[in-house]
Amino acid sequence: LPEDFKEALPVLEKIEQAGFEAYFVGGSVRDHILGLPIHDVDIATSAYPEEIKHIFKRTIDTGIQHGTVTVLLNDSSYEITTFRTESGYQDFRRPDKVTFVRSLEDDLKRRDFTINALAVDRNGNVIDKFDGLKDLDNHLIKAVGKAEERFHEDALRMMRAVRFQAQLNFTVEEQTAQAIADNAPLLSKIAIERVREEFVKLLLSHSWQTGFAEFLKLHLSDYCPGFKDQRMELAELLESSKDKYFVDEEEAWSAIGYALTLNQGEFNHFLRDWKVSNKTREMSVNTLNMVHLFEVGDYDLWNIYKLGLDNFSRALSLCKMLQVFFDYDALTQKVEQISIKSSHDLKITGKDICQILNVKPGPIIGKSMSQIERAVVEGNVYNNFEELSHYLLSNQ
Ligand code: ATP
Ligand code: MG
Fold first, then answer.
1. Ligand 1 atom 14: the closest Cα is on which residue?
2. ipTM greater than 0.90, yes or no?
3. Do 354 and 294 meet the contact criterion of CB atoms below 8 Å apart?
4. Would you say 42 and 24 are in contact if contact means Cβ atoms under 8 Å apart?
5. What is the DSSP-derived secondary structure letter of residue 91?
6. Bridge partners of residue 86, in order along the sequence
7. Do residues 58 and 72 touch, judged by C-beta distance below 8 A?
8. Which residues does ligand 1 sit against, CB inside 6 Å?
9. How far apart are CA 357 and CA 391, in angstroms?
10. Closest protein CA for atom 22 of ligand 1
11. Paired strand residues for 95
């Protein structure tokens, strides 16, 4: 057993001592068998939530209606979920009814893919009811049971398939892929936040190109905001981006905005449709604007500064990917010499300006401030009080 599992063993043992079953399940089992780092250890049990709360002193009702209780033991916390089946899928979304059951097999059966439907007991034995080990070996993402039915129950699973493809560099098994191609329109039933979460995970994966190519090939893209009939344009990203992966979500969105040739207004609108956070939206829009500057040969420091210096290295990285060539190092050197991040870093205040110019507060202050800010950014004056005062007086 890997360390993360060993640490959690006392939890399994206590549950078993109370007469119930408990197993490691889900992504952690898959990742352990693949030799990948494990992030969260999920535990599934035949004990009902109330029974778990009896067994352990300190618990939190994390998602009790779905059967999940967090157990606090030895300075660690563990999510323990009761075996369950799901029913009453309405509108191709999540189930509205979960039923607690005592059988592990029933619990594994409701899981999305065979590679995610493995369990490990406390002795390290793998419980493999759906040939998940074989599919792990063959690098296949295959639905548990009939793919078509599984995607009708929860259409998000189609996005999860291509997301796991990107993360693991696996292939979507043929019948599963066919069922996605046949049912792709169901994706439009899913809340955009859930689709986005999977899509962003896909884009930030090491093998994002394979997952993205499949996302296009199976027409999932046609049912995502702003992607309808844009498969050719989006596929161009794959051409130019060999071996390149995105450093953050903002870089990925900017690359997509570029591929779709969106102007600022359209790109803003597009990102709002995907319901990305305001911060991510602003950073992505400014990054793409910066790329557009460099593309037309505008390396003006003031323009770059106004779009946010924090976006500069991302914009450069994107230019490399999109094959927008210029002397990256020379520009980087110039940008690194900009001594302020914002007007707050200026060594002069509005009050100082009033005194120096002997004027009352008014629009002139803001104007003078921007003038000074620009001069500092362009390297025409040092950012210290003496120099700035002098600059102010001689540029009246
Ligand atoms: P990650 O590494 O992203 O956490 P994961 O496989 O652990 O991957 P989770 O979303 O954390 O994915 O879900 C945990 C487990 O719950 C999955 O391995 C799978 O067995 C099951 N699961 C999650 N979402 C679904 C779904 N929409 N339909 C069916 N089973 C699901
Ligand atoms: Mg997980």
1. 26
2. yes
3. no
4. yes
5. T
6. 98
7. yes
8. 26-27, 42, 111-112, 116, 154, 156-157
9. 12
10. 111
11. 89
Give CA–CA dist 90/154, Å, rounded: 9
Per-residue tens of pLDDT for the chain, all 396 residues: 888 999 999 999 999 999 999 999 999 999 999 999 998 899 999 999 999 999 999 999 999 889 999 999 988 999 999 999 987 767 777 777 889 999 999 999 999 999 999 999 999 999 999 999 999 999 999 999 999 999 999 999 999 999 999 999 999 999 999 999 999 999 999 999 999 999 999 999 999 999 999 999 999 999 999 999 999 999 999 987 777 899 999 999 999 999 999 999 999 999 999 999 999 999 999 999 999 999 999 999 999 999 999 999 999 999 999 999 999 999 999 999 999 999 999 999 999 999 999 999 999 999 999 999 999 999 999 999 999 999 999 987
Q: Which ligand has an atom closest to residue 160 CA?
A: 1
User: Within 13 Å, how many C-alpha atoms sit on residue 363's CB side?
Assistant: 0
Going by alpha carbons, the residue nearest to atom 8 of ligand 1 is 27
The pair of structure tokens assigned to 119 is: 């369990």
Q: How many angstroms does the Cα of residue 166 sit away from the middle of ligand 2?
A: 16
User: What are the E-state strand segments in the chain?
Assistant: 22-25, 42-45, 59-63, 68-73, 76-82, 84-89, 95-100, 119-120, 126-127, 140-141, 171-172
Which residue's alpha carbon is at the smallest distance from atom 3 of ligand 1?
Answer: 27
Instruction: Pick from 36, 112, 149, 159 the residue to mutate for probing ligand 1's pocket: most ligand atoms within 8 Å of its CB.
Output: 112
Which among 360, 353, 348, 364 is positioned nearest to 393, based on CA atoms?
353
Stretch (H or E) spanning 331: helix 328-336
What's the gap in Å between 33 CA and the centre of ligand 1?
16
Q: Nearest C-alpha to atom 27 of ligand 1 is from which residue?
A: 157
Pocket mutation for ligand 1, best pick of 85, 116, 157 (most atoms within 8 Å of C-beta): 116
Alpha-carbon distances, residue 94 vs 126, 156, 180 (angstroms): 28, 9, 17
